[in-house]
Design a protein that fits this description.
Length: 341
């Protein structure tokens, strides 16, 4: 475990010297992907629903392993393919350019997926939906890695620990040492029902769906890292989340030890300046590892990575290239056959 963290650290040191070159070539990644929309039928409380997602494959090959990408609260699949700066912040297109397949879904109630009654959506039911998508992906891919962000990471924990049907788990924007006071402040002062939002209210959802107040997306970014343009794009593409997902996610995934049930390799990859979900143990990787290791079994072979200067929404950081590179290195080392040669 310590060796794995050292190898990732070496890679990031190299990237730090050449990061500007990687960023400059990012738009080329947009031309190195075959992306298409896919609908996956699922069942929620015996009711048929549709999960819509974007699948991105390398331009000239089809890997045997896929990453299922699960966005955070008040985000949608655009988090993984932000339409800004010619794809420079796109996790999906950058992964495709490096030979990786991804499938980024809109969780139920978000984006282009079905919008059921909000009270039907909890962390547990969302995990069931993720499990159904994993089952579908296994008809086309040999291995499935589930990669979550923030609330999506909590859902991934519940799904991976309950159904134990994945080959790897990547948790971003999540630890078990959240700043509950800061997060409570966001929910009290920074969100409102989506019915009051001039854009999201057009979907006709019920008041149980909430979204962030205008001008508050900066809290998800480190001030010294995120450019104003990406924060604006974040605001423009924000989404809604059912408030009913919070109680069991908080109790089971973020505070409780349910993650000990995960039987696949786990990578925690956070922004070092994430003051919301990595508030107390992100001074360095050794500290984070020591704090998180008790929440995982030996089967998880826990590895951790911190992206310097990045905030909570690490995939939208100016240092996101290092974040993505660390995940690729971990996949190659911990999930065999991630890329077809």
């Amino acid at each position: 475990m310590r060796q794995r963290r050292t190898l990732v650290g070496v890679l990031i040191s190299v990237l730090a010297l050449s990061g500007s070159a990687l960023t400059a070539t990012a738009p080329a990644a947009a031309q190195s992907a075959r992306c298409s929309m896919v609908d996956v039928p699922v069942v929620l409380a015996v009711l048929p629903q549709i999960v819509r997602g974007q699948q991105c494959l390398p331009a000239t090959s089809t890997p045997t392993t896929v990453q299922l990408l699960v966005h955070g609260g008040t985000y949608n699949r655009a988090y993984w393919d932000m339409p800004y700066d010619d794809g420079a912040y796109s996790y999906q297109r950058d992964m495709a350019a490096s030979g990786y397949a991804t499938f980024a879904i809109d969780l139920l109630g978000s984006g282009a997926s079905s919008q059921p009654l909000s009270t039907l959506l909890t962390g547990t039911t969302a995990a069931s939906v993720v499990h159904q998508v994993v089952t579908k992906l296994r008809t086309s891919f040999d291995k499935v890695i589930v990669t979550g962000h923030s609330m999506g990471s909590g859902i991934v924990v519940l799904a991976a620990a309950t159904y134990r049907d994945v080959d790897g788990v990547v948790l971003t924007g999540m630890t078990h040492s959240m700043d509950l006071l800061a997060l409570t402040g966001i929910f009290v002062d920074g969100v409102r029902p989506s019915t009051l939002d001039p854009v999201l209210s057009r979907r006709g959802g019920d008041p149980g769906y909430v979204t962030t107040m205008p001008g508050t997306r900066g809290v998800f970014h480190h001030p010294g890292d995120a450019l104003p343009g990406i924060v604006t794009a974040d605001e423009e593409h924000k989404d809604q989340v059912p408030a009913t997902v919070v109680p069991d996610l908080l109790a089971l995934a973020f505070v409780g030890p349910m993650s000990t049930g995960i039987n696949a390799p786990v990578l925690i990859a956070n922004g070092q300046q994430d003051t919301l979900f990595c508030a107390y143990h992100c001074a360095d990787e050794d500290t984070l590892y020591a704090a998180e290791a008790p929440y995982f079994s030996q089967d998880a072979q826990l590895t951790v990575h911190l992206t310097p200067n990045a905030g909570h929404s690490v995939a939208l950081s100016e240092h996101a290239d290092a974040h993505r590179a660390a995940i690729r290195t971990w996949i190659q080392g911990s999930v065999d056959g991630a890329v077809n040669d």
